[in-house]
Amino acid sequence: MTAPAPPPPRPEGDPHPVVVLAGLAKSYGRVKALADVSLSLRAGEFTALLGPNGAGKSTLFQILTGLFVPDSGTVSVLGADLSADPTAALARLGVVFQQSALDLDLTVEQNLSYHAGLHGMAPRAARQAIGEALALFGQAGGRRERVRTLSGGTRRKIELARALMTDPALLLLDEPTQGLDPASRRDLVDHVARLTRERGLGVLWATHIVSEVEDADRVVVLHRGRVLDDGAPADIVARHGGASLEAAFLAMTSAPATDEVPAGRAA
């Protein structure tokens, strides 16, 4: 049975767009990693980028963070074009990558101080930002602990604190719960959801674990580089006739490959 066509992309005129992606495409040889991906991400919204392994989630994040250049399409952050003015665009993004970027032999404070230095923060401002960011995750008392001694869940909180030190408009998290136990995974999701509400932070959380994002404000389903659906979890379930978000997700991503793409979604 053919799945119902998803709605058109959310317009760029939505209130408070933080990041606008328009027509992003990226190929590696004959493999099309992204195909005409267009999204508008807003402040105060927890958006889940949900897709199976190989869907193109990491490629999208590498483009958003300036590590990869798209074959076509544009990225703008609060009006700053990523290709024309990368410094201004990247300054408003906070990132937690799939693989940890903490130095295990340094203390928490040393790791965060190094990050502050890379962003040109003055020492006094850096100390204040470090204290405030760690306090958000209940880690203010552990700033002199060596990262090597910390649990996986605590390390992820330190990485989140580091990403928030520069007061980003959008927080990007690429499979942030990888390797964590279920309790630590739930704790991390809850922390980020709270920050979204309390700080008006825009969040893009990439994952293949449906249970992590069932309470997200919005879910974007990505498969084979194409956006298959975009909306509130309940709306996605209703459109695809499943009993749950997981059932709807499996129905969409298990369908045979096709060149038929909903208008406005991919080419």
What does this structure look like?
- The chain is of the alpha/beta class.
- It has a domain at 1-92 and 168-175 and 198-267: Rossmann fold (3-Layer(aba) Sandwich), CATH 3.40.50.300.
- It is 32% helix and 24% strand.
- The chain has helices spanning 57-64, 86-90, 108-118, 123-136, 152-164, 182-199, 233-240, 245-253; strands at 17-28, 31-42, 46-50, 72-77, 80-81, 93-96, 170-174, 202-207, 218-223, 226-231.
- The protein has a six-stranded mixed β-sheet, with helices on both faces.
- Helix 3 (108-118) packs across helix 4.
- The model is unreliable at 1-14 and 258-267 (pLDDT under 50).
Descriptive labels:
ABC_transporter-like_ATP-bd, nucleotide-binding, 267 residues, ATP binding, 10 strands, alpha/beta, four-stranded antiparallel β-sheet, ABC transporter ATP-binding protein, six-stranded mixed β-sheet, disordered N terminus, transport, Rossmann fold
Q: Quick gist of this model?
A:
This protein is of the alpha/beta class.
